[in-house]
Design brief:
Blueprint lengths: L1 E12 L2 E12 L3 E5 L6 H8 L7 E6 L8 H7 E3 L12 H9 L8 H7 L15 H13 L5 E5 L7 H16 L3 E6 L2 H7 L2 E6 L2 E6 L1 H6 L5 E7 L5 H5 L4 E7 L2 E6 L3 H11 L4 E7 L3 H9 L6
Parallel strand pairs: 3-7, 3-8, 5-6, 6-7
Antiparallel strand pairs: 1-2, 1-4, 8-9, 10-12, 10-13, 11-12
Bound molecules: adenosine-5'-diphosphate (ADP).
Length: 302
């Protein structure tokens, strides 16, 4: 069932058409990503969904509510992540949660939220004394405090180190598993690939594809490059004769085999038969980066 339905959304700022006919629908219970480079129109799109911006065209339905005229009802079902600048420096974690709880008809048990988010120890800490990761987790807690059916998270892990980023990803999966639908804005390929059930790829205000990360990747060539250093001399022609192998090159002491389908299996079986070990084996395959490049003609600038 579609929980968010966006049809032909248009939003202009003066002469700039930031969102130019965007359509997608988000199913209940999924993590739906909006992926695109900076300036693609991602934030504008979600701000229209949140009712923070007035659209110039198209329609939006969030659980049957039109954000343009139903903002009170919408607030009860949709939780948005705050931008960091929206909290005063000196507010304590507990105070922020008490304040935001008071805005909702059925607020969540925020002690439980703190526990889930690993912030219990920081209850009495001022906002300005929190680390980047802790601030991020607090903003997630505030997005969830009204027990929303949908949480909108914008550039969730920007500025976090890789470990904090991975922790945040598992946290978001837990939130999804608890029944909250998540709309996630990101320009990180790895985040989109790891976290999203489906993605809308947006470029210059337009949707260029909607699919699962694996679906997007499968639209590009399934070519693989298998690179290794053989432990003993190996006749390249044997490799070239293997099924699904298209090319074999030497690169110093390494061999690089290009192929598709079952090439990797064929290469490893041949090496096993010849009792040759493939040292420093690396297999490169198409990634979401390649899919993005194929769809938009350029690389995303992380
Ligand atoms: P993204 O979130 O993908 O980085 P945005 O939705 O923030 O993209 O911006 C899309 C386009 O709209 C950009 O060209 C940006 O400069 C422009 N834009 C965004 N907000 C405003 C605004 N308040 N006034 C004028 N132009 C804006």
């Amino acid at each position: 069932m579609a929980i968010i339905e966006v049809r032909d959304l248009v939003k202009r700022y003066g002469d700039t058409t930031a969102v130019d006919g965007v359509s997608f629908s988000v199913e209940e219970g999924e993590i739906f990503g909006i992926l695109g480079p900076n300036g693609a129109g991602k934030t504008t799109t979600v701000e229209c969904i949140e009712g923070l911006r007035t659209r110039d065209g198209g329609s939006i339905s969030v659980l049957g509510h039109d954000p343009a005229d139903d903002s009170t009802e919408l607030r009860e079902v949709l939780g948005a992540q705050l931008q960091e600048s929206q909290l005063p420096d000196k507010i304590k974690v507990r105070e922020a949660l008490e304040l935001y709880s008071s805005f909702y008809r059925s607020p969540a048990d925020w002690n439980r939220l703190l526990e889930i988010l690993g912030l219990t120890e920081k209850r009495e800490t001022q906002f300005r004394r929190l680390s980047g990761g802790q601030k991020q987790r607090l903003s997630i807690a505030l997005a969830l405090i009204g027990t929303p059916k949908i949480a909108v998270l914008d550039e969730l892990t920007t500025g976090l180190d890789p470990a904090a980023r991975r922790d945040t990803w598992s946290l978001i999966e837990n939130v999804r598993d608890s029944g909250v639908t998540i709309l996630l804005v990101t320009h990180f390929m790895e985040e989109a690939e790891r976290l999203c059930d489906r993605l809308a790829v947006i470029d210059s205000g337009k949707v260029v594809a909607v699919d699962s990360p694996a679906g997007l990747v499968s639209t590009v060539d399934d070519e693989q490059r298998i690179r290794f250093r053989p432990s003993a001399p190996l006749d390249e022609r044997l490799l070239l004769d293997l099924p699904d192998v298209c090319d074999v090159q030497r690169a110093g002491s390494h061999i690089v085999v290009t192929g598709n389908g079952n090439a990797l299996n064929a290469v490893t079986s041949l090496l096993a038969r010849k009792q040759i070990i493939a040292a420093e084996l690396r297999v490169e395959q198409a990634s979401l980066d390649d899919a993005f490049l194929a769809l938009t003609g350029r690389k995303i600038d992380n």
